[in-house]
């Protein structure tokens, strides 16, 4: 069984880190104030505000910030400011044994995907494909906060992950499977193939989402994942949104799912509102979930926190 980090409560301390691309100081400061208004204390990594071109700081510096948060006993949750690019460069500098010994909630999505899955694979830690600092603002829908805090601040179990009203999950291949859930952003997962941090989907339920990629690129991603055995190894497949993903050659995102994934015969649902879209379901990476693509339900079988 994967390690469940301690739950988050109002008054706890959140450790803030910039692990990929830089984020402007004004955005950081306004989002931090939002968190403080919610009742949380904030500790800053040394390079939260850093700017070094494509990435905020060197890989070693960004990794050190993350490790310092895991070592800090006062920090209950680690929150990425944003994704962007470059997160995978910190992975060789992480001490997965120390992380395993100091479990904490860590949340993010987009380029943070590769970190979330690596922490599960190498530290056996449940992580959260969910909100980043940029999402803590008044414009964020209540659904996103409800999803986040129900997953990180309660022991409710089992917990159904449901889309907002009037946005239905679509079952494309019927079935019923239970296993640990892994995955996230397609770009991040494909970029890690052929490295020591390649995602392990064997006996897992794989979910995927993407943003700002034409369907020619999605075709490449799905083909690469397939040729790497990721769909053959998995128990079932959950497809999230592809936000701002224009059709190419008259072929849509949905067309690719139907032509490339449905024929695999694995239990398959699509249209989960998670990732880069307006609505963001919270997915606990490494937790056991039940995917019932006959009834179109997704259920977290155990509390992802303790």
Mean pLDDT: 97
Q: Report the span from N to C terminus.
A: 13 Å
Number of E-state strands: 14
How many helices? The count is 9
Identify low-pLDDT runs: none
Strand content: 15-25%
Please give the order of strands in the largest beta sheet: 6-14-13-8-9-10-11-7
CATH architecture of the largest domain: 3-Layer(bba) Sandwich
User: What's the shape?
Assistant: globular
**Class by SSE composition:** alpha/beta
List the topology elements.
Blueprint: E1 13-17, H1 25-37, E2 41-44, H2 59-71, E3 75-80, H3 96-101, E4 105-108, H4 113-123, E5 127-129, H5 142-153, E6 159-160, E7 170-173, E8 176-185, H6 186-191, E9 205-211, H7 215-227, H8 230-233, E10 236-243, H9 253-261, E11 268-272, E12 283-285, E13 288-292, E14 297-300
Parallel strand pairs: 1-2, 1-3, 3-4, 4-5, 8-9, 9-10, 10-11
Antiparallel strand pairs: 5-12, 6-14, 7-11, 8-13, 13-14
Helix pairs in contact: 7-9
Family: Belongs to the peptidase S66 family.
Keywords: Carboxypeptidase, Hydrolase, Protease, Serine protease
Protein name: LD-carboxypeptidase
